[in-house]
Design brief:
CATH architecture of the largest domain: Sandwich
Distance between the termini: 69 Å
Structural class: alpha+beta
Strand order of the largest sheet: 3-2-6-11-10-1-33-9
Number of helices: 9
């Protein structure tokens, strides 16, 4: 069995300079538990990376072959840091020579099924997105002289300050590899391959541009980067694998009026114990830059943990920074009494989003709420949902320039008032990003006409999609789906079944939904999990026959269990109603218990 369990938040943070190996493959001798030689026992025999751009969205497929040149069965442990903001959309493992895609189920069930198969002696393997949102998989067995192959799919939303950066630094040589980047438009993006490798560029008659490079028996040192992506049209249409057409609008905004500065700013500062490892200096730097740019009349500080919130007010940002520098971090994280809908123009919430104490739900605040995090394990989906309720955004400061991030915070003005079809009908749309100088909107496409965006202060933008059928590309639809999931999760007691259903609907791994791959149809039937359609009609028929047998056995067991319970109850009643002869004491013993 192989499980892909998604960690907190579901979004990969930005990768800093590629110091550590990426991807990284280590070996373990599964039979005796001894770690193998990391540089030699296993190697990456083949690495294939394909990136497909559609507008400002990227869809990536990574295929990796693990080779085992030893004479022992080994377990492989493979890790890959992803580009900033990436979402996992698929995982596959080779089974009997063919790649079998995983299916999405609830994360607890996925973990339980995997552990059950391990205990039963079935080939163990597990894949997950770690708490730092790096992709990790463990696969067994990797047989001597043979290998195993995995395939990972993820999507990435690109912007001017968040380009596509996939670190590629390998300590050992890779047998052979290939990178292909496909783009469309009048102007090519800037594509850089690791180590300044030669780039092959081809342009097809339909305007499709292809960038590629290959290598053999070489180590990589650098990154695959894609910058300066400029779509032909501000609106791009695509069709998700589920059939939904989605539009993606990326456009500029004029500078906001100078008089639009906030008079009151409220700083909500998480001082729980888990925050000690966050980049607090970077957070204070962002706050300093923002306050210097906006110059509010009053600054309210609300610091919170598991005790009662502490409140202070300042007029000088320097005094606020002094107070933050003196904060002591202890206790759990609770929002009780923090979100009190106080009068403020802007609220800045500094936290990792991992709320560990008390029931909570977030109502729409009177202020525009911006959530800021620097923790690698921050719950980005939850923070985005909390901010979105009050017209704000979440900023992952761990991978952003504080100066640019401060500009983004200052630019959040609720400037987009309405999104409609040409005839005035409201469209099912969301504002994915809104900064001082640009915005990004996703929505279900109305293929009958234009999209109108009404701005605060007057003015309407009209967007006309290119004619023709939207091309198949999952990225925009996945980000749309993740937003629906995040909105449904903004509570301490979200409906898990609904969240898993939404994850399946949009084919994306989340904190509550994991991909799982099983070996045989019997494994799927035992777990009560329908296999992917790609296994073929014969295998699906076998699964359904086995599943029917399991359901029949369960019904019989349930009926027999009731009969057994009734029999046991009757036996109990009979025992209580039976008159047993009294037990007479042994007169041959004294009171002390010894025989005379």
């Amino acid at each position: 069995a192989l499980v892909l369990a998604f960690g907190l938040g579901g979004v990969a943070p930005a990768a800093d300079a590629p110091d550590a190996p990426n991807p990284q493959l280590t070996a373990e001798n599964y039979r005796d538990g001894q770690l193998g030689d990391q540089s030699g026992d296993l190697r990456i025999g083949e690495l294939d990376i394909a990136v497909d751009l559609n507008g400002s969205m990227a869809q990536t497929t990574v295929t990796v072959q693990f080779d085992n040149p030893t004479d022992r069965e080994l377990e492989g442990d493979f890790t890959l840091d992803l580009p900033a903001g990436s979402l996992i959309t698929g995982y596959a493992l080779d089974v009997e020579g063919a790649l079998r895609p995983g299916v999405l189920i609830g994360a607890p069930k996925a973990r339980a099924v995997y552990e059950d198969k391990v205990r039963a002696g079935v080939d163990p393997g597990v894949a997950e997105v770690t708490r730092t949102n790096a992709f990790r998989t463990r696969v067994f067995p990797i047989l001597p002289g043979r290998g195993r192959t995995i395939r990972l799919s993820f999507v990435t939303a690109l912007s001017a300050d968040q380009p596509y950066v996939l670190p590629l630094v390998t300590g050992q040589k890779i047998g052979k590899g290939r990178v292909d980047v496909t783009a469309r438009g009048a102007e090519p993006p800037i594509v850089t391959f690791p180590g300044g490798r030669p780039v092959t560029i081809g342009v097809a008659r339909d305007g499709v541009m292809r960038f590629g490079t290959t290598w053999k028996d070489e180590a990589l040192d650098g990154a695959l980067t894609i910058t300066d992506v400029r779509p032909d049209n501000a609106i791009t249409l695509s069709r998700h694998m589920g059939g939904d057409a989605v539009f993606d609008i990326v456009d500029s905004l004029p500078p906001p009026p100078a008089a639009d500065r906030p008079r009151t700013v409220r700083v909500l500062w998480d001082r729980s114990l888990s925050r000690r490892d966050d980049d607090l200096t970077r957070e204070r730097d962002l706050l300093h830059r923002y306050l210097a740019a906006t110059r509010p009349e009053r600054i309210d500080l609300v610091s919170f943990a598991s005790d009662a919130p502490s409140r202070q007010s300042f007029t000088d940002p320097a005094d606020l920074d002094t107070a933050l520098a003196a904060v002591t971090y202890r206790g759990a994280t609770a929002l009780t009494g923090v979100m009190d809908r106080a009068e403020a123009d802007v609220c800045l919430l500094f936290t990792d989003g991992n709320l560990t104490l008390d029931a909570w739900s977030i109502e729409r605040q009177r202020c525009v709420l911006i959530a800021v995090s620097t923790a690698p394990d921050a719950n980005a989906a939850r923070l985005a949902g909390i901010a979105r309720r009050s017209g704000g955004i979440h900023i992952d400061l761990a991978g952003a320039d504080p100066a640019k991030a401060a500009q983004r915070v200052a630019g959040v003005k609720r400037r987009i008032v309405e999104i409609t079809a040409a005839d005035g009908r409201p469209l099912d749309a969301i504002v994915l990003e809104e900064t001082a100088d640009r915005f990004r909107i996703l929505g279900r496409a109305d293929l009958t006409g234009d999209v109108l965006v009404r701005l605060n202060g007057g003015g309407v933008r009209r967007y006309s999609p290119a004619p023709g059928t939207p091309r198949r590309h999952d990225a925009a639809g996945v980000y749309w789906g993740v937003r629906q999931i995040a909105d449904a999760e903004v509570s301490d007691r979200p409906d898990t079944d609904r969240l898993v259903g939404l994850a399946r609907r949009w084919s994306v791994a989340t904190p509550v939904a994991s991909f799982i791959v099983l070996e045989t149809m019997e494994d799927y039937a035992d777990a009560g999990i329908e296999p992917p359609a790609s296994v073929g009609k014969a295998a699906l028929a076998e699964y359904r026959e086995l599943a029917d047998e399991r359901r029949k056995d369960e019904r019989e067991e349930k009926a027999n269990r009731l009969d057994d319970l009734i029999t046991a109850w009757d036996d109990q009643k009979q025992w209580w109603n039976t008159r047993f002869p009294p037990v007479r004491p042994d007169r041959g013993r004294k009171a002390g218990g010894r025989a005379e």
